[in-house]
Amino acid sequence: MTKVPAPRYLAAFLACVPQAGLWAQIPNPMTLSPTAASRGALFEIRITPAPGAANKKTIQLSRNGAVADAANVTFPAAAAGAPFATATVPDDLAFGLYQVIVTLDNRTYSAVLRLRPPGTAEIKLDKVDPDHTYSTETVWIAPDPQKPTQNVHSLRTVRLTLRGSNFLKHTPEELRKNPQDNTIWINGERQWVNWAEGCSAKSGTRDEGVAWGIHGTEVSSEQIELCHVTVPANGILLVSAAYGEPEPQTDRQQFTVYRMGTAEVAFISFGITAALTILVLSILWFVKTPYRIAGEDYTMGLLFLDKETDTYSLSKFQFYFWTLAAIFAYAYLYISKVYVQGGDWPDIPGTLPGIIGIGAGTAIGSQVVTAANGSKGAGPEKPGYLDFITSGGVVAADRIQMFLWTIFGVIAFCVGVLQKAPGTISGIAPVPNGMMYMMGLSAAGYLGGKMARNPGPVIAELSVTPAMSDRALAKAASATVDLPDFNQPSVAAAASLNGLPKVANSNAQKAIDAFAGAIKAAGGVHTTSDLANLLANLAGFRRDCESAAAAAAADFSATPTAASGQDAAAAQQAAAYLQDFSADVTQAISAAAAPSMDSVAASGSVPRVIELRGSNLAPDGAFEIGHADLPFRMLLNKDGQHAPEVVTRQDGGTFANVLRFSIDPAHLASTDLAQYQAWFGADATWVATLTNPDGQKADQSFSLPPATTPPS
Amino acid sequence: MDDLQKATSQAIVNVFETGRILGDYGAVAVLKGDNGHLTYGRSQTTLGSGNLYKLLLSYCQQPAAQFGTQLQPMLPRFLQKDFSLDTDSAVKGLLEQAGSDPVMRAAQDQFFNENYFAPALRDADAAGITQPLSQTVVYDSHIQAGWTVLKSQMPGINDLGGETAWIAKYVEKRKAWLQSLKPPLPGTVYRMDSFNALINAGKWNLALPLTVHGVTITAEALSSDTPAPGFQPRTLRLTTPYLRGDDVKQLQNKLNPGVTPDGIYGPFTDALVKKYQAGQAPPIVEDGAGPLTRKSLGL
User: Fold this and answer.
1) Which of B19, B47, B2 is nearest to A587 (CA)?
2) DSSP letter (8 states) at residue A454
3) Taking chain B, what is the end-to-end CA distance rounded to the nearest angstrom?
4) What is the Cα–Cα distance from A630 to A626, expressed in whole angstroms?
5) Domain check: are A134 and A103 in the same one?
6) What distance in Å separates the CA atoms of residue A191 and residue A619, rounded to the nearest whole number?
């Protein structure tokens, strides 16, 4: 196509085409047949009335200031029905609308010819499906050669799959000649797509960028892949296609690139929910003094604790759980609408007040029922997760169903929220009426069960009087230490020692000295630690003495004289006397220990009173200490009955606020006495359990002696 | 438990109580406390508990009791737990002398058997404890007291893997318990140390000889120096503690005439026996002074 001076043609074409009225000034209207043709196709030109003869005749195709001569131009002889001229479209013209200009000397005629692919089928672009994405690709763009100071910069791009019909599929050679036959518009801007390189083009790196531009692949006549498509600020891409330009184009199809997907928004929503939860926990951590139960501090557990029973509250758990679910759902909606869709702050969805209302209503209803009907049983002394499904240590069906429905309901609700993508979500789907009905029924069942059930025992305080173990009492009763009396055996041993003859043999003298040393050692016992060492010392003296006596006897055997015999006999006696003395010492220790042992083991048990203070304490309940029954036969109340004593009766019922268990070991059978001594004989810590007739129970630990820090 | 094991079991507890294998039947002591006061006999029978009255009553009812007529008038004071007996030297002297009376020894043996040994075996049997050493542990806990308290704090035998493991655990627990009590009870942990030594030595059948608290128990040591009719005299050997008795004195009179015998079979007496045995033709080859030596000496 030959380029001609632009001013002349622009003045002629651009001035005339848009202003339809100027077409009328062309003296001989010209028509083309056909008005649309493909490359190399023949078209006829008719001019009515026929123009006169001319010396110079040219036929050219012009667009956007570019002009090309028509090929194979002929001017047939004038005849009826014959065209003024015929020509063919050049092979290298791009598709689009062209002005065909016939110049006859100084006269000019023109008409519009559409250059398009062969046939009549039009390109069609289907709706993009899916019409959105959350994933983008980063392409590193090389600096503009005209701006060498630029650095490689990143571009957020997206990959698009266009489906439709009648897309052109070119060979590489065809692409080289006419690379833009499939023409793409995005947001009204024609895109110069690099079809040759296709979507296998590199995305560049931080160090080595690539040229900016969209790449495309003609997959088939029904599919085109586009990549490196720049994502606009609002994320919306309006895509259309055509054969060449400017018109006709297909309908614009919208494709949206959202900033975040479901996972990201869900994660942030969860983070917000967790942060709010941590905020509450932090307040508890820094502000609240720990709540102490059986020597253990509870800080975070305060959220769920029912202080009346020291148990975890199911209604509180349900309330909190639904509240957190509602916060999560609204955070998800808010982020989606405001940050993903770029919309306004969404209103609270109508379904949230409903579910919060059920949780709050259940919690309040629970308090009302407790106030009217009495608390549940405290169960184990320390709160635990079992509290959610038990009442006073007994598994409660109404609590299980509510616990399960709460867990299921919250999970189902959150999963339902996440089913809506952040880019398309418009609101929180309402909880189905049936589900709301079921949750309400579950709460009603829970409150009904709470109302129907008897109140359970709660032990606020347990005291044992006397508070010390039998052994501690025995120790306290005898402040002075009774050391064994070694006087009698020492006197006897000293007499034996003095009765021994003087000896000349050194071994015999050693034996006698060892005996004397043992007597002296026994005389030196003044403290309990002296006593602990005495037996070991005596054993040493005995070994020495017996060895010396054996040596003296050996001396006698070697030199059997009367003198050596006397010495050996004296050594033998010394060893024998020391053996006797050791036995006497043992006997003295054993004898001295006997009464102490008697006081500990036999008659050391004293009567005790165990008093429970709390609420809903059933006098006919079962009482255990350390999981061993305290049978009524072991009790003796002030009326002489084998039963507990109701010290303070609870208003309007059979329960007691103060219950007393009196036990006198003097009246116990041997097996019961053994159990009593096992409980109270030595310092220990026990867990007492009162189980009401309906099975609800309460635990309370106590220790002998009492702990220095009283339980709260 | 056969007779020898029973004698060994009682000897072990005798050693714990009196330091002697056969016990000290004439031991008299005065102990502090309401349950103590005057104590008597092989296993410390106390006036305060009323058991001393029961023992003396049993003795006095025996026709052959050498001191029965002298003790009979005093029985009401024992019945009434008259604590002035603690300082009555005449009564204490009489009791010491009665300790040498075989009838008193038999009475004490029967009394302790009925009141301590037999109940201990019943309790052991009820607990599934059958081995002689284990039964001795139980017997010791009955003599010293505290079995009921500690037994109730122990898990079941099967829970600990059987009797031997249970007894070992019980001995360990009892030792800790004794150490936790007020003095002088911690001083009696030698009982548990001795049991631990026997357990570690595997002496579950109380096979002799065995040593407890520095005392070696042998068959001879369990025998009396005055054998019952029809029984052979015991063989005198060097043991720890040394054997004593009239049979030793008779032996010493033969071996070392002219010198007052001390009745102690110690290293000197043993040297005399060996010297005598070596001087015979042919020499007598025998461990200690047994039948051959006695026959040679004309005993």
Assistant:
1) B19
2) P
3) 35
4) 10
5) no
6) 91
**Domain-ending residue, one of A115, A145, A175:** A115
A253 with A267, same domain: the answer is no
Report the alpha-carbon distance of residue B119 to residue A694 in Å, rounded.
43
Kindly report the number of other CB atoms within 10 A of residue A505's CB atom.
21
A325 to A277, A423, A551: CA distances (angstroms): 12, 21, 94
Which residues in A lie closer than 8 A to residue B267 (C-beta atoms)? Answer: 546, 549-550, 552-554, 568, 571-572, 575
Number of other CB atoms surrounding residue B50 within 10 Å: 15
Tell me the C-alpha distance between B276 and B271, whole Å: 9
Contacts of B214 in chain A (CB under 8 A): 539, 542, 582
The SS3 assignment for A333 reads helix
Domain of residue A404: give its range. Answer: 263-453
Q: How far is CA A45 from CA A60, A79, A599, A637, in A?
A: 12, 14, 138, 130
Gap between the Cα atoms of A31 and A54, Å rounded: 19
Residues 6+ apart with CB under 8 A from A108: A12, A26, A101, A102
A397 SS3 class: helix
- Identify from B32, B268, B270, B275 which residue to disrupt to test chain A contact, counting A C-beta atoms within 10 A and taking the largest count: B268
> Chain B interface, mutation test: which of A473, A512, A587, A680, most B Cβ atoms within 10 Å?
A587
The interface predicted TM-score of the complex, written ipTM, equals 0.84
Nearest CA in chain A to B268: A553
Contacts of B256 in chain A (CB under 8 A): 565
Residue A469 lies in a domain: no
**A12-19 long-range contacts, Cβ below 8 Å, gap at least 24?**
A12/A108, A13/A62, A13/A99, A13/A110, A16/A110, A17/A99
Q: List the A71-74 sheet strands across, edge first.
A: A30-33, A42-47, A85-88, A71-74
* Inter-chain touch A603–B35, beta carbons under 8 Å: yes
The predicted model scores a pTM of 0.46
Q: Is B247 exposed, middle or buried (0-12, 13-18, 19+ CB in 10 A)?
A: buried
For A223-295, list the strands marked E by DSSP.
223-230, 236-243, 253-257, 291-293
Domain match, A301 and A435 both: yes
Reported as a single tens digit per residue, the pLDDT across A89-127 is 998 888 888 999 999 988 889 999 999 998 888 889 999
pLDDT digits (tens, 9 = 90+) for A517-542: 999 988 888 777 787 788 888 889 99
A228 inside domain: yes
Q: Are residues A410 and A517 in the same domain?
A: no
**For the purposes of burial, counting CB atoms within 10 Å of the CB of A136, is it exposed (0-12), middle (13-18) or buried (19 or more)?**
middle
Are residues A250 and A104 located together in one domain of the fold? no
Average the pLDDT over A376-397 and give the result.
77
pLDDT bracket for residue A597 (50, 70, 90): low
Q: What is the pLDDT confidence band of residue B254, given thresholds at 50, 70 and 90?
A: very high
| Residue A617 CA: distances (Å) to CA of A107, A373, A378, A635, A656 | 120, 15, 11, 17, 5
Q: List the single residue in A482, A590, A670 with the smallest CB-CB distance to B16.
A: A590
**Predicted local distance difference test score (pLDDT) of residue B258:** 85
